[in-house]
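Posted in: Protein Modeling Q&A

I'm a second-year student putting together a small comparison for a lab meeting, and my supervisor asked me to include a predicted structure for Solute-binding protein family 3/N-terminal domain-containing protein. I've never done this before, so apologies if this is the wrong subforum. The sequence is pasted below exactly as I got it from our records. If anyone can share the structure token output, I'd also love a short note on what stands out.
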Amino acid sequence: MKTLGLGASVLMVLGVAALAGCGTATASGAPTLLSQIEQSHTLTIAESAYAPEDFQNPTTKQWTGYDVNILQGFAKTLGAHLKIDAMPFSASIAAVADKRADLTIDIYWTAARAKVISFSRPMLNYNDVVAVNSVHPAITSDTLRALTGQHIAVVVGSEEVNEADKIPQAQITQYGSIGESFLALSSGRVGADLQPDVDVSWAKKENPSLAIKILGPVPASIAPPIASLRGYYGVPKGAYSQSFLNKLNAYLKTIASNGQEQKILDKYGMTSPVFLAGIASAPNTYQ
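Accepted answer (user: helix_wrangler)
Welcome! Here is the predicted structure, written out as tokens:
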């Protein structure tokens, strides 16, 4: 039986390593997500309209938002364009898990979701904050003591309901939407509003007449861990997505480090450094 000489053996090993590095196939020889995107020149995101993450510009009807901008930039590094597959949010995770779409918009990590999809490194902090009336604030401190006994607005079914429930003697009103809660705060019908900082910043940018402002973060004693309030992109599980996920993680770390992501966020009123605090140095996995 013929044997390969040392030179030929080294060349073969290097060739296999190069293919593995490119992510063209899994160990079983099946094509990878990365190779399919590079061949089709299309990166498909399962998207539901939710400003300022992702929404259609009312004038141009084009999709925009910071998720769209971030992923358009990433798609370019793969020689691809971003394709929007619009669907209800409730259907988006299943679409990615079933490989009908390549990735989700940024979402919270949960144990249930981690069973069906893999997550990127974190790309944004969604800190919950205490918003108050900017003209006649009912409270001037973001401490639990200052919130005690106050009239607090939250949105039905949100994480902030659990936070408000931990405020002693608080009078809690649950509104059907963030917009309703902000109107209540702006008109002085409630003393404080517990909401994600993203939503407060976006509302002020879109409607400067709203008399609301961020007082500070929700007290740590009633807020969930910061890792659970970060945004992550979701991709299909397994070796099929690993080379793609490696490239996505590298890109997200780069733009968080070099100021590129902050420039994108600035366009949506998210100018505070709190949104990216700790993101560049965060691990690639949920912790």
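A couple of things worth pointing out for your meeting: The longest strand covers residues 42-47. Residues 239-257 form the longest helix (19 residues).
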